[in-house]
What does this fold into?
Amino acid sequence: MTTRRAIRAMVGPASLALALVLCMGCAGKNQEETTATVSGGGEGTPASSEGGNTALAPVPSHQTEMPGQGSMSDMAPHGQAAGGAAGHLTWTAPQGFIEERPKSSMRMAQYRLPASPGDTEDGECVVYYFGAGQGGDVKSNLDRWASQFTGPGSTTPKLSTSKAGGLSIDRAEVRGTYTPSPMAMGGGPEPQPKSHYMLLGAIVPGPDANWFFKCTGPEKTMEANRAGFDSLLASIQPAH
It folds into this structure.
């Protein structure tokens, strides 16, 4: 308000109009720059392979990159198998993986795994892709996943490899007390440790960067979905 009053006192109507147009243009530019900025932290900033620098994730269009074409009406009904495609890899989600709208732009796909009898929470399976050359190397990300399991009952990660679509997939299984990253909680309250949890994870090399398939949930729920996770990984193919 102070700036506009000064302009009105110093210039005539025509100059005032020009000044206001210029100011509005500057404001629009600042707004665009702010929208394009991605804040780091937690699940949104995986280990970088270049000197530890934090890599900013791209902000994809859900309509073009999210399985199901980004529309809630296009998503698979509960309990039905769904196909997935996100630009560089394709896969088929198994029966029982319920497709949901991703919580953040860093998630290429997100599935809910209904809780097994005796478990009080559902499991979750998320697919991350951070852009060409981004996301970090395999070891750094496996170490980060393992570091989220601490406290009573936590185990050393079981590492293995498998093949699908001509790709070599690095896999990890961890059990114990799991503390989600703040980003995984969607910016809500400080995440609390969850006992008797389990992670089934896989890192898949894409044409230009690694892809991350991370499924977490109560042990019984994850064991019930182990075969489904295996079938999802077996269905992965490079997109053509």
Remarks:
- DSSP finds six helices and ten strands in the chain.
- Helices lie at 2-10, 13-35, 62-65, 138-147, 219-224, 226-234.
- Residues 1-42, 44-83 have pLDDT under 50 and may be disordered.
